[in-house]
Amino acid sequence: MTLAQRWAGVDPGSVSSEPAAEWWLMRAGDLHRLVSLLTVEFDEVFGPVAVDGVIRVRQIHSLADLPIGVTEEQETASYRLHETGTALRFSYGLGPDSLKSIVHPPRSPVWTMRRQDGSLVVDPALHGTTTRAVIGARACDIRALEILERTQTGGPHADPAFTARRSELFVVAIDCTHPAPTCFCKTAGQGPAADQGFDLAVTELDDPNGVVYLVRAGTDRGRSMMFALHLGYAPPRQIERRTRALEEANRDFIRELPNDASDVVRQTDHPQWEVVAERCLTCGNCTAVCPTCFCTDMEDRVGLDGETATRTRVWDTCFSQEYSHLGPGPHRASTAARYRQWLSHKLGTWHDQFGESGCVGCGRCITWCPVGIDLTAEIESLSLDPLSRPSEEMP
Amino acid sequence: MQHASPSPIVWPDSLDRGEPPSLAVWKFASCDGCQLSLLDCEDELLAVAGRVAISYFPEATTAMVSGPYDVSLVEGSITTAHDAERIRQIRRQSRLLVTIGACATAGGIQALRNGRDVDGFRSIVYAHPEYIDLLAESTPIADHVPVDLELRGCPIDRSQLLQTLAALLDRHALRLPTTSVCVDCKARGTSCVMVAHGTPCLGPITQAGCNALCPSFHRGCYGCFGPMESPNVPALRTQLELLGLDGAGIDRLLDTFNGPAFAEFEQEPESGPP
User: Fold this and answer.
1) What is the pLDDT of residue B59?
2) Do B41 and B119 sit in the same domain of this protein?
3) For a surface tag, which of A10, A169, A269, B218 has the fewest beta carbons within 10 Å of its beta carbon?
4) How do residues A332-346 score in pLDDT, each as one tens digit?
């Protein structure tokens, strides 16, 4: 019996009824078996892969696809991968891809249209029954997935494409023991350990006898998978080590996001908007790497023979002039207006729309902004009284 | 994000008459690369073989039909007084004039000579410099005659050319991107060469349309599609300096394919009402 059969009738999101005290212990060989099982049970498995010096989220086929013994250095506008020589597979901070790239991909087909017998026939894109799993999701990304889900399915018109990709996604979380200096999940409201929203959660610990992985299940289907692997429980000593490792990680945050940012970003006349506009390239990198930015545009292509057409949903960015193009032209023509739109939506009006902040503190927009604009620094400047603001703001 | 062309295209009357529109391809100062992009579309063009009448295209055929033409594709920049007169004649014979490539839209690589010692160049390059009658500057077609549509790039993107032909033949809206190359890098999953490798790149200020070709081969963008809709050239200069380029190096990068076009944005970006 496959796991999929075992899960028939099991609500994928149902929380385990057993006490949360079940901690399984895996060694590298067991991790290999876990990834193999995932590749057998799911049509597509995604995980961290080192590509061109960057940890990306890509489809994987075995544990060998995952990086080993690498870590990264991140700062504003800088990311570098280094070899460490260890046997650790998850000892690095976030790369540019979040779960958004899986559930809300850059391009997704909407429909095709064709001429037939003098009329036009529309064939809606099929969302399919492809099953997917991901290994390596961090707490902030799971939180972002929930936020993204609310934006796409929370209203009366749930997006079927998103729902198809999201609802059955099997999530193997990795507790973040190596937060990057650019991230600030602690003050954004979660992490570094995943506390919900996963099927399995894993903590990787270095150990004199080889790397160990402590695993806990968040859902019944996660527990089924642990039982299928016939794993032993973890000794209390390892669980204590995990606690210490996460306490240490939780101390490492340099950046923070103040609680009152929602009011701060609504100061539409603050001179800081013009100051940041001098640096902003309006290139759209921040919205692309943001795990909750969801805006899209529709792209239509007509075949040269005039017989067929396709509509594709593509990522859009509020940093584009065309994004706000109405009859007379873009109503957010200036860079200041566009940066303000992004930040005041993310941290301000997102609360009004969805009852929460749109920022999870992953810091991707800080690392991947080509000129290193740091939203936490912008919030700090916006928090200053404009009249008492120091005149020198440029770095 | 895409946008409609600045002014609505007035489609040739021949489409209403049910005749295949006549197409002419013209060359000015250029390397022929953009015309070759058109020839490179041969498989796709077979689909429209009966729908377009290629009336003037010396690169491809010896048949020459006299004008007027429904659509003229114009490659190359204006570099001689003779060119300047010829483009006016072509404009008069063309219902729709589409410029193709960085030479035609911005003056091209040969605009590197603008503001420099052209007589000196001429005496070094040519055995008989007295035969060469040059204007002081290499200028885009739009400096001389009204242009209906510009396709950027060095060379142009064949997909954009095919979309343009499809829009022409079936008279539907044509939308070309105005956002940065970064948008395409992120969409296709290319890691940022500037952030991850420290490679100088013009992608953030360059218009998308090439599907971020150079960064996908680990090279910085050379800016061959020219300025995106709101290019912050001074801010990118500051970052390129941090990556180790000096002023001359940055100038060289900006000047190579679309120098005059980027030069218009060297001052602080215009700040409209917020």
Assistant:
1) 76
2) yes
3) A269
4) 999 999 999 999 999
Residue B136 and residue B104 in one domain: yes
Same domain, B99 and B201: no
The strand ranges marked E within B36-105 are: 53-56, 69-75, 94-100
Torsion region of A244: left, alpha or beta (phi above 0 gives left; psi -120 to 50 gives alpha):
alpha
Domain membership of residue B272 (yes or no) is no
Picking from B133, B160, B176, the residue at the C-terminal end of a domain is B176
Angle at A186 between CA A183 and CA A189, to 5 degrees: 110
Instruction: Compute and round to an integer the Cα radius of gyration of chain A.
Output: 23
Domain that holds residue B185: 178-263
A12-21, A125-134, A272-281, A349-358: lowest mean pLDDT where? A12-21
Please list every residue in chain B whose beta carbon sits closer than 8 Å to the beta carbon of residue A336: 271, 274
Residue A12 has pLDDT above 70, yes or no: no
Domain ranges of chain A: 20-251, 261-383
C-alpha distance from A25 to closest chain B C-alpha (Å) = 35
pLDDT value of residue A364: 98
Q: State chain A's maximal CA–CA distance in angstroms.
A: 74
Q: What is the mean pLDDT of chain A?
A: 90
Instruction: Indicate which CATH number applies to the domain containing B26.
Output: 3.40.50.700
Whether A304 sits inside 8 A of B47 (CB atoms) is: yes
Residues of A in contact with B241 (CB under 8 A): none
pLDDT of residue A145: 97
Number of domains into which chain B is organized = 2
How many whole angstroms separate alpha carbon B247 and alpha carbon B72? 40
* Residue tagged 């993107």 (tokens): B157
User: Mean pLDDT by 10-residue block, N- to C-terminus, for chain B (274 residues)?
Assistant: 49 71 93 92 79 82 79 96 95 95 97 92 90 92 96 96 88 90 98 98 98 98 97 98 97 95 80 49
Nearest to A268 by CA among A107, A386, A113: A386
B-interface mutation test, from A287, A298, A320, most B Cβ less than 10 A away: A320
What residue of A is the nearest CA neighbor of B237?
A371
Chain A contacts of B170, Cβ < 8 Å? 302, 306
Say what the ipTM of the complex is. 0.91
